[in-house]
Amino acid sequence: MNSEANTVPCEFLELAADVFGVDVETLTPETAYGSIEAWDSVAHLRLVMETEAKFGKPIPLEAVPNLKTLSDFGRYC
């Protein structure tokens, strides 16, 4: 698990890049929902599901609307 704010494991950025269909170099922990065209509501839910599957930690349903930047996913990686 990653406990530092504003950081996420490189493998999470790679996962997000795959979900969004973008180069990993275009993403940072500060990348926010809606800041790239591909991060829409469907991609958001897919990122939640893929994160749970890869890192094995469930993301509570009530937390999903609060995941606004990639760094917000850090606690689940």
Name of the level-1 CATH class: Mainly Alpha
CATH topology, which one? Answer: Non-ribosomal Peptide Synthetase Peptidyl Carrier Protein, Chain A
Helix-strand sequence: HH
Q: What percentage of the residues does DSSP assign to strands (E)?
A: under 5%
Structural class category? mainly alpha
Number of helices: 2
Number of strands: 0
Structural Rg: 11 Å
> Judging by the overall fold, what is the CATH architecture?
Orthogonal Bundle
Unreliable stretches: 1-5
- End-to-end distance, in Å? 5 Å
Brief synopsis:
The protein has 77 residues and is mainly α. It has helices spanning 10-20, 41-55.
Textual characterization of the structure:
The protein has 77 residues and is mainly alpha-helical. Helices cover 34% and strands 0% of the residues. It has a single domain, classed as ACP-like (Non-ribosomal Peptide Synthetase Peptidyl Carrier Protein, Chain A), CATH 1.10.1200.10. The protein has 2 helices and no strands. Helix 1 (10-20) runs antiparallel to helix 2.
Features of the shown structure:
mainly alpha, 77 residues, 2 helices, disordered N terminus, Non-ribosomal Peptide Synthetase Peptidyl Carrier Protein, Chain A
What topology does this entry show?
Blueprint: H1 10-20, H2 41-55
Helix pairs in contact: 1-2
